[in-house]
Amino acid sequence: MTPVLSVRGLRAYYQMRYFGTLREVRAVDDITLEVRRDEIYGLAGESSSGKSTLIKTVARAIRPPLNVVGGEVRFDFGQGERNLYALSAEDLAATRWRNLSYIMQGSMNVLNPVRRIRQSFIDFALHHMALPLPAFLQQVEDHLAHLSLRPAVLDSFPHELSGGMRQRVTIALATVCRPDFIIADEPTTALDVVVQKGVLAMIRRLQREMGSSVLFVTHDMAVHANLTDRLGIMYAGRLVEEAPTRALFHRPLHPYTAHLIRSLPRIGDDAPRHGLEGRPPSLASPPPGCRFHPRCPLAMPVCREVVPPMEELEAGHRVACHAARQGILP
Ligand code: SF4
Ligand code: MG
């Protein structure tokens, strides 16, 4: 089955001139991945690993100094693959909301503070639906009811709603046009655990019912374990491992993934969590070879010089690690 999203060799750098010299922050560096129809693909990694930059680039929601310097982003919404960056502004606008919906980090703040929620729905979504206003509003109400939101929220101002309610409304807004592909960046991070659970269940249900694909970003591995079908791990601008979520938790092949999983709190286990020495590198001057080598307990001389290629070592399980290639597991 053809993937809905194909990212190939994507590089997106922040490029700044500093006294005549070009300074580059390589936030997304040679990333290749696919998201299939009808799956939730998770993207994990510490903050500033490039996750948000990657999905901004995938949504073509970038502006200078962030530039795409290589690679491709292709979508297939059922009429053949198209390069997102080759679309005209008009065609791009036509894909928004109906084909591709992007729930940005902190997106509860997209709701206009001085307008009632109803007006935000009208402002954002009405012209994508080609419906007369009364029919559109009926559809909005049906969609809200389906998501267990009272139609009365339409009369509210954003500040009258709780954070969890605002996030639900934002997700309702992003999905009212039934998009083929939903991109969500840390949509539950600001919420408490109980509210978070409700929002995640809502995303899962919408995805199943609409048969859409979701690209879901969070640093929270526990959320990935509960929500995603496949998972990619980013470190310092690169994808270092990718597998079905269950396989990845069961048997991580990359030392960094193993670290992320071991850092998860476990019920009934009071053993101290293993910390990792050091911090992620600056993306303006990342270390040569494997970018993880200064922190890696398995680092070998080759790791300091040669970038480990991403290879499929088990069916559907890709990893970029010299040790893993030699059968050494973290
Ligand atoms: Fe560690 Fe080397 Fe693997 Fe990088 S390539 S994760 S440094 S063993
Ligand atoms: Mg982020």
Automatic annotation (TrEMBL):
Q: How does it sit in the membrane?
A: Peripheral membrane protein
InterPro entries given in the database record = AAA+_ATPase, ABC_transporter-like_ATP-bd, ABC_transporter-like_CS, Oligopep_ABC_C, P-loop_NTPase
- GO MF annotations for this entry? ATP binding
Tell me the Gene3D superfamilies matching this sequence. P-loop containing nucleotide triphosphate hydrolases
- Keywords on record: ATP-binding, Nucleotide-binding, Transport
**Membrane-spanning parts:** none
Outline the extent of the ABC transporter domain: 10-261
Query: Where is this protein found?
Result: Cell inner membrane
The highest taxon in the source lineage is Bacteria
Query: What Pfam families would the database entry show?
Result: ABC_tran, oligo_HPY
Q: What is this protein called?
A: ABC transporter ATP-binding protein
Name its species: Roseomonas elaeocarpi
